[in-house]
Specification:
alpha/beta; 8-stranded mixed sheet; two-stranded parallel ribbon; 10 strands; 19% strand
């Protein structure tokens, strides 16, 4: 075969082979999109996932269906998402526990947040609140620190392993040189029951969960973990301003897709997600619950995730925490 004719045949074959893929990307989305939330229905992650699904559905003019795949601290759902076809039809809600803390806890994790996902955009972040029972023998963060230092090993706190509140407490113990004893709980609900009943005197809990109890006086908020005060807790100081300079530990969520998802599809998803998060109605809904909306886009979110992995891995290593 003449060389020129042979090259022409190759070019025609390549164009034929790539035409369906190009057409699929141009028509995307042509069918409903699945958004995996790696936790059971009803929690903060589920609320964020359903909000994001609604906004993506409006922008993309296609149904976005939430699938809750809980278990193993989010590992099962994240692993399922990492192994999904990279065609834009499967997305996943990423977060501090699943995409940062788990890497420090389990070096043999079945997925790698840096290598197995494209991170599309951060959705929000919010602080944890250091909440204590009203009968606790301290009424401020500084009094708590003084009590803990005067009574090493005698002060208990509740935590859910690998959750943002757990990591905030470990960072606090390291930063303020406190010796306190943690009581692990299998979930937030039994921990809250014991905290409200004064079986455990304190815990870090999400600001949206804590708000009603603080307003009713059933819990007292001593500090928040964000760099700045939270508008829902204007009179509650940050830990940084209360004597631990530079302290910050936030809970966050974002949107990610399996590695290999074509860039045109990723660009379309990023534009749709960012536009939805910039909607005044969405911002008002999230901010009214104490969340800070952060539609920062792919590059910034990817760098943020990598930084969080490094940070929490170091905290976990220093504390000597093992999987529970």
């Amino acid at each position: 075969m003449h060389k020129r004719h042979f090259l022409a045949v190759l070019a025609s074959a390549a164009a034929t082979a790539f035409a369906p893929a190009a057409m699929a990307q141009g028509d995307y989305p042509s069918k409903p999109i699945k958004l995996i939330v790696p936790f059971p229905a009803g929690g903060t992650s589920d609320v964020m996932g359903r909000l994001m699904a609604e906004e993506l559905g409006k922008a993309l003019k296609q149904a976005v269906v939430v699938e809750n795949i809980g278990g193993a601290g989010g590992v099962i759902g994240m692993d399922r998402a990492a192994k999904a076809a990279p065609d834009g039809n499967t997305l996943v809600l990423s977060g501090v526990g699943t995409n940062a803390v788990n890497h420090g806890l389990n070096p043999r994790l079945g997925y790698d947040s840096n290598k197995d996902f494209h991170h599309i955009t951060q959705i929000q972040y919010g602080p944890n609140v250091l909440a204590v029972h009203p009968d606790a023998p301290f009424r401020s963060f500084k009094e708590l620190v003084a009590y803990a230092k005067a009574n090493p090993g005698k002060l208990n706190y509740g935590y859910t392993p690998a959750a943002s509140g757990h990591m905030a407490m470990e960072q606090l113990k390291q930063s303020a040189a406190l010796f306190m004893v943690g009581i692990p709980y299998r979930g937030a609900a039994p921990m809250m029951t014991d905290l409200l009943g004064n079986q455990v005197p304190m815990a870090f809990i999400n600001q949206d969960t804590a708000l009603a109890y603080v307003k009713s006086g059933r819990l007292r908020a001593l500090a928040v973990t964000s760099p700045q005060r939270n508008p829902l807790y204007p009179d509650v100081p940050t830990i940084a301003e209360s004597g631990v300079p530079g302290f910050a530990a936030i809970s966050w969520t974002g949107l990610s897709a399996p590695k290999g998802t074509p860039k045109p599809i990723l660009d379309k998803l990023e534009a749709a997600a960012v536009a939805g998060l910039q909607s005044p109605a969405v911002r008002q809904k999230l901010e009214s619950q104490g969340f800070v909306v952060t539609p920062q886009g792919s590059a910034a979110y990817s760098a943020f995730v990598a930084k969080e992995i490094d940070r929490w891995t170091q905290v976990i290593k220093t504390a000597g925490i093992k999987p529970e």
